[in-house]
Amino acid sequence: MSEKPEQGVPVKCRHCERIMSQPVVCDYCHAISPTATRADHFTLMGLPQRFDLDERELHRCFIALSRYAHPDFAQSESPEVQSLHLKVSANLNDAYRTLKDPASRAAYLLELLGGASSAEDKSVPEGFLGTTMMLQEELADAKSAGDRAVTGRLKKVLLTQHDGLMKRIASLFDEHGQAVVCEAVRKDLLAEIRKQINAVSYVAKLLSQLS
Ligand SMILES: [Zn+2]
Q1: CA 137 to ligand 1 centroid distance, Å
Q2: 3-class DSSP state for residue 25?
Q3: What is the 96 CA–ligand 1 centroid distance (Å)?
Q4: Is residue 188 a part of any domain in this protein?
Q5: Which residues make up the environment of ion ligand 1, defined by Cβ < 5 Å?
Q6: What's the 72 CA to ligand 1 centre distance in angstroms?
Q7: pLDDT digits (tens, 9 = 90+) for 72-120
Q8: 93 and 17 assigned to the same domain
């Protein structure tokens, strides 16, 4: 994960030297700042670090910023500025792809907030494995028998499960966002979010076998 820009240190525009309100693009002349390369995906998009974001707003920010960061915008500039534009354009694509999909946005935000990665913590919610193993067996049987009625029903069950897990993740992030939670509660919430995200990836994997 990229290093965060220093908090509270005002960033001066490399072009017009005015103070910028964020570390990505100058508010006045729209020059891309070198500090943009160190911004996390949310900061890069000019959005708050939260799970619940408006996907249309994300798209609008992506389009606007991609225009300023486009390499064509830097054709007459120095090689350093040209490579800055290339790098920031690539980072914007990466950020958009990650934040657009709720499951990958959740995983990214969790690690940004200090939660464990899927490699560090593979646990799932209690009872999840038992139920899912049964579904997995039923699915394998139905697939080998070519039973479309059963695979169709199982797909519905998995989609409902996926939906339920994503709603739970949204409400846990919401709870985490309440400033009142103490550090111990905050850590518990992050651990619980990790479990739910692990479960969602599991269900998504099963669903991908059905498409
Ligand atoms: Zn400027």
Answers
A1: 60
A2: strand
A3: 24
A4: yes
A5: 13, 15-16, 26, 28-29, 31
A6: 18
A7: 988 899 999 999 999 999 999 999 999 999 999 999 999 999 999 999 9
A8: yes
Amino acid identity for residue 32 in this structure: I
Domain that holds residue 36: 11-100
Helix, strand and coil in the chain, % to nearest 5: 65, 5, 35
Q: How far is the CA of 43 from the centre of ligand 1 (A)?
A: 18
- CA 20 to ligand 1 center in whole angstroms: 8
φ, ψ dihedrals at 189, nearest 5°: -65, -45
- Boundary (domain end) residue, out of 100, 115, 142: 100
Looking at the fold, whether 91 and 15 belong to one and the same domain comes out as: yes
Is the overall model pTM greater than 0.85, yes or no? yes
Q: Which residues fall within 8 angstroms of residue 139, CB to CB, at 6 or more apart?
A: 151, 154, 206, 209, 210
